Amino acid sequence: MSSDLAGTRVAFLVAPEGVEQAELTQPWEAVRRAGGEPVLVSTQLGRIQAYDHLDRADQFGVDITVEVADPADFDALVLPGGVANPDQLRTQPDAVRFSRAFFDAGRPVAVICHGPWTLVEADAVRGRRITSWPSVRTDLRNAGADWVDEEVVVDESGPNTLISSRRPDDLGAFCAAIVRHVRPTRNATTAGTTRPAGAGLGDDEVARQVAGQTSSDRQAADVFARESAGAGSDTEAARSGADDLR
């Protein structure tokens, strides 16, 4: 396990239903393997339902609701895709506020697929270079973004680093960019020792680390299913799911 993200906490914001599973689990595992602490944030406690495209996949436990989560407690934000996931989030004021706060604080945001819908609602993409699932292109351009068709885009022209990718096929490059550009920002005491952006693992190395995660993700999800079947309450089920992702 690398220690490139040691000391970082990374929020993964998802709706209760509709997130594309690979776009949650693979960046989550990349952060964890690099020594960071991923945290699952949603609009309600309990378990979120992930999808493999249009098919129900696995469920995962929520660590904290977006209503009470403080953006200042995190070093970066990841917004996975899936059509229904950001479509729900962009209607939730707390989720929009939470997402916008990372831009205002100058902290990295990584978004993939349909995820930018939430950022459009937050008016956070104006003047930024970004990519997405093709059907989101017009929405982004109408919101003032410079949309491009590339595997991964790292835009540092605004108040923060904005990382974006188009689809699950881009996850290797997307995860590599997250590991390279996220760094501890929460504590003033780390100011003198913070890694410069891009000082993490090389893209090829991170891509190799995350490329084989599909089978391990499935195994972890199977463990969650067995454990949560006997959980006595939603709180216990949520705890089981959170432990499983870790």
UniProtKB/TrEMBL annotation:
Domain DJ-1/PfpI: from-to ranges: 9-180
InterPro entries hit by this protein: C56_PfpI-like, Class_I_gatase-like, DJ-1/PfpI
Pfam families the UniProt entry points to: DJ-1_PfpI
The entry's keywords: Glutamine amidotransferase
Annotated segments matching region Disordered: 186-205, 210-246
CDD domains reported for this sequence: GATase1_PfpI_like (cd03134)
Recorded family membership: Belongs to the peptidase C56 family.
NCBIfam families: PfpI (TIGR01382)
Name by which UniProt lists this protein: Type 1 glutamine amidotransferase
Lineage: Bacteria, Bacillati, Actinomycetota, Actinomycetes, Frankiales
